[in-house]
């Protein structure tokens, strides 16, 4: 079976739109998401445009901040702090990745915790690790929503997360651990990776390499979540080979991607309501 995220994302966005409309009725304004992008990476530009369109459909104001490639860490941090101090902005998204000369972690940490709707700060990671989930990292949050929507049993299962990114692999592992899975995090230095994956009831592929996870790595009946998106509309899993082994598998595109954006919009609206009632 395919774990499509399209219908699930539509339902999440619809509920977010209803809450956004309530915010607008109460204030006369819209919840506002500020998106910051540095440079003109084509994939990032396309992704930001997609987020802006989804915001519009959900009744969320989208403020776009485009900075040149030459922007320094200090200039980016100053811009993010300015948005953090702006009461009209409820959520801040820094489009990843930033150019190599920028200290991405310093930029993330400039986001005020109550506006970290993409769940990228150390504050949000600590919350996910300790079960105080104000804001989830959006892709891991979308993954959990997908698993729940397809009635995947998590407690007691062995989950293998391939990738240790601080905004994807690590938070995904923490969210699975919080649901009582036994979690193994694999990475570029893991010895015998294929053998480790073969023991997994749930596989989360977040390595950033096209078709990296092979079909014969998948235990028969395992749940396979492909969180990768690579050039050519392919994920991190060799889908054609893995589909014959997996019990459930996400397609790329149309699996994790739609739920990622839906969670971002939902958390933006939630942030606006929390700030209103604070």
Q: What is the percentage of strand-forming residues?
A: 5-15%
The SS-based structural class is alpha/beta
How many DSSP E strands? 8
Spatial order of the strands forming the largest sheet: 5-4-6-7-8
Using the coordinates shown, work out and report the CATH topology of the largest domain: Rossmann fold
Instruction: Note the run of SSEs as H and E.
Output: HEHEHEHHHEHEHEEHEH
Q: Average pLDDT, to the nearest integer?
A: 96
Largest sheet: 5 strands, parallel
GO cellular component, one term: cytosol
EC number: 1.5.1.5, 3.5.4.9
Function: Catalyzes the oxidation of 5,10-methylenetetrahydrofolate to 5,10-methenyltetrahydrofolate and then the hydrolysis of 5,10-methenyltetrahydrofolate to 10-formyltetrahydrofolate.
Keywords: Amino-acid biosynthesis, Histidine biosynthesis, Hydrolase, Methionine biosynthesis, Multifunctional enzyme, NADP, One-carbon metabolism, Oxidoreductase, Purine biosynthesis
Any overview of this molecule?
There is one protein chain. The radius of gyration is 19 Å and the shape is globular. Strand 1 (32-38), helix 2 (42-57) and strand 2 form a beta-alpha-beta unit. The protein has helices spanning 6-27, 42-57, 73-84, 104-109, 122-130, 138-149, 169-178, 193-197, 239-242, 256-277, and strands spanning 32-38, 61-67, 91-94, 158-162, 182-186, 202-205, 223-226, 248-249. 47% of the residues are buried. It has 278 residues and is α/β, with parallel strands linked by helices. The strands form two sheets. It has a five-stranded parallel sheet with strand order 5-4-6-7-8. Belongs to the tetrahydrofolate dehydrogenase/cyclohydrolase family.
């Amino acid at each position: 079976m395919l774990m499509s995220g399209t219908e699930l994302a539509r339902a999440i966005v619809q509920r977010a739109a209803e809450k956004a409309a309530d915010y607008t009725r109460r204030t006369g304004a819209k919840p506002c998401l500020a998106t910051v992008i540095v440079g003109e990476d084509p994939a990032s530009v396309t992704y930001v445009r997609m987020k802006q369109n989804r915001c519009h459909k959900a009744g969320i104001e989208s403020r776009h901040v485009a900075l040149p490639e030459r922007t320094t860490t200090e200039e980016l941090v100053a811009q993010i702090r300015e948005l953090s101090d702006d009461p009209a902005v409820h959520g801040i998204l820094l489009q990843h990745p930033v150019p190599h000369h920028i200290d991405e972690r310093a930029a993330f940490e400039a986001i005020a915790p109550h506006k970290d709707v993409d769940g990228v700060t150390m504050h949000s990671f600590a919350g996910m690790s300790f079960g105080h989930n104000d804001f989830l990292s959006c892709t891991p949050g979308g993954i959990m929503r997908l698993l729940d929507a397809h009635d995947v049993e998590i407690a007691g299962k062995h989950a293998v997360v391939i990738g240790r990114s601080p905004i994807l692999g690590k938070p995904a592992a923490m969210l699975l651990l919080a649901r009582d899975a036994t979690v193994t995090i694999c990475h570029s230095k893991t010895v015998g990776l294929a053998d480790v994956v073969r023991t997994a009831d749930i596989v989360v592929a977040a390595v950033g390499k096209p078709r990296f996870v092979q079909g014969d790595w998948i235990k028969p009946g395992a749940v396979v979540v492909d969180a990768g998106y690579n050039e050519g509309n392919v994920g991190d899993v060799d889908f054609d080979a893995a589909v014959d082994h997996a019990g459930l598998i996400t397609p790329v595109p149309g699996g994790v991607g739609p739920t990622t954006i839906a969670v971002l919009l939902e958390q933006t609206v939630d942030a606006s309501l929390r700030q209103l009632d604070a």
